[in-house]
Recover the amino acids of this structure.
């Protein structure tokens, strides 16, 4: 693709690095921003810089937050004895959109995947086990995607915490095997949370 301007070319190259954005779409977005009022483009750029520089991760659940502790963990109306274990922040957003869960979350930051070089030490597993050890947690809900990596991660955590007095459950398989939570519709996901089953029932030990 030929460009008459290096400035446009640089912008297109940067935008096209975003997931799902090819060079043609990146060019269309860059040209769109050129047609916008200058202050609108500046507002977008400033919002991105502020987000990147100032976003924090909750010191309790590892969710994204503007403060040291996220609004969910700081909410006294949430039940801190129930923790929903998810892969990343998109899953928190997906479950929150169902309004079916009133406990807290724990964001692992991924799932165990030897093929991708991701092991247990690369995830937020130690802090989860510490929560269980504290005795405050009464139920742990595994809500990772129904994939081999997700099931492996669930089982790994289960083996670490099953000696403690904590109930373990997993979301019902209303979510299709192999699907990511972020793509499930709100009704199906909400029912999966509400109709969760004991984790032991989902595995063969």
């Amino acid at each position: 693709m030929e460009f008459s301007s290096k400035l446009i070319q640089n912008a297109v190259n940067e935008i096209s690095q975003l997931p799902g954005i090819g060079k043609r779409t990146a060019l269309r977005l860059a040209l769109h921003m050129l047609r916008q009022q200058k202050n609108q483009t500046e507002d977008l750029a400033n919002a991105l810089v502020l987000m990147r520089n100032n976003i924090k991760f909750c010191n309790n659940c590892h969710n994204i937050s503007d403060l040291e502790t996220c609004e969910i963990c700081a909410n006294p109306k949430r039940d801190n004895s129930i923790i929903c274990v998810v892969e990343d922040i998109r899953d928190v957003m997906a479950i929150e959109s169902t309004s079916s869960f009133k406990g807290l979350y724990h964001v692992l930051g991924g799932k165990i995947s030897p093929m991708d070089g991701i092991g247990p030490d690369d995830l937020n597993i130690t802090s989860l086990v510490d929560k269980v050890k504290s005795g405050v947690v009464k139920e742990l809900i595994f809500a990772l995607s129904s994939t081999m990596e997700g099931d492996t991660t669930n089982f790994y955590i289960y083996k670490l915490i099953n000696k403690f007095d904590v109930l373990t459950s997993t979301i019902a398989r209303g979510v299709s095997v192999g699907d990511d939570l972020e793509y499930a519709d709100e009704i199906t996901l909400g029912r999966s949370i509400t109709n969760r089953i004991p984790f032991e029932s989902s595995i063969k030990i």
In short: Helices lie at 6-15, 23-35, 38-54, 71-74, 89-96, 126-133, 148-161, 186-194. The mean pLDDT is 88. DSSP finds eight helices and seven strands in the chain. The radius of gyration is 21 Å.
